[in-house]
Amino acid sequence: MGRPRKFDEHEVLVAVRRQFNETGYHGTSVEDLSRVTGLSKGSLYGAFGDKDALFRRVFEEYCESSDRNAAARVEGPEDQALDRLRAWLTAPEGRPDRRGCLLAKTTAELAWEDEAIAARSLAAYGTLLESCRLLIEQAQRAGHIDPAADPAALGGLVLATHRGIEALLKAGVDTATLHGIANAAIDSITLKPVSARI
């Protein structure tokens, strides 16, 4: 019988994900992971497998979290769908910090060389696109967006705006400017622009 683990698995995975998010897959060494977790290389490998297995685990968990959050945004009254989209673009909790989004970083770094990562990234972005499309359709039924507009295209516009805001945030653009961009994007697809601003 092996000895019981003497570490909090969740805390270890959070530290590992933060490190990969800061320095990327290729820029992160096993020594880095050992340093941020406080675990030896042997303990890390014994509990989670090698660096690649550990990365794929935290990336999958990140994508699953993204999928759940996307599904949750679709829930709620249809007449508040546009508000939920606006909140996603403007609320601090709706954006990552300057480390950026692990999904975006991983896609840029690894999708070109790893088919499994590329497929998972595409699936995660597909879920985000679908949730945006559904929210646009809800807003159309509520009379807030032109019913003749293409909901898939407008949903893609919202997602592209979100990704762009993330890049600007990483560059250090101030919150007021980012909110202005987000509000302009939502107002541009709204039949009757609302006066409330975040």
| Radius of gyration, whole Å | 20 Å
Average of pLDDT:
90
- Percent of residues in β-strands: under 5%
Characterize the largest beta sheet: strand count, sense, and whether it forms a barrel.
none
Q: Which descriptor suits the 3D outline?
A: elongated
Instruction: Please tally the helical runs, counting DSSP H or I stretches of 4 or more residues.
Output: 9
Residue ranges: pLDDT <50 for 5 or more in a row? none
Helix content: 55-70%
C-alpha termini separation:
56 Å
**Overall SS class:** mainly alpha
H-E string? HHHHHHHHH
Instruction: Find the count of extended strands (DSSP E, 2+ residues).
Output: 0
Key terms:
198 residues; mainly alpha; elongated
Describe the secondary-structure layout.
Blueprint: H1 9-23, H2 30-37, H3 41-48, H4 51-74, H5 81-90, H6 102-110, H7 115-141, H8 151-171, H9 175-188
Structure description:
The protein is mostly helical. The chain contains nine helices and no strands. The protein has helices at 9-23, 30-37, 41-48, 51-74, 81-90, 102-110, 115-141, 151-171, 175-188. Helix 1 crosses helix 2 (30-37), helix 5 packs antiparallel against helix 9 and helix 7 (115-141) crosses helix 8 (151-171). The longest helix is centred in the middle third of the chain and has 27 residues, at 115-141. 26% of the residues are buried. The model has no long low-confidence stretch (mean pLDDT 90).
Briefly characterize the structure:
The chain is mostly helical and 198 residues long. It is built from 9 helices and no strands.
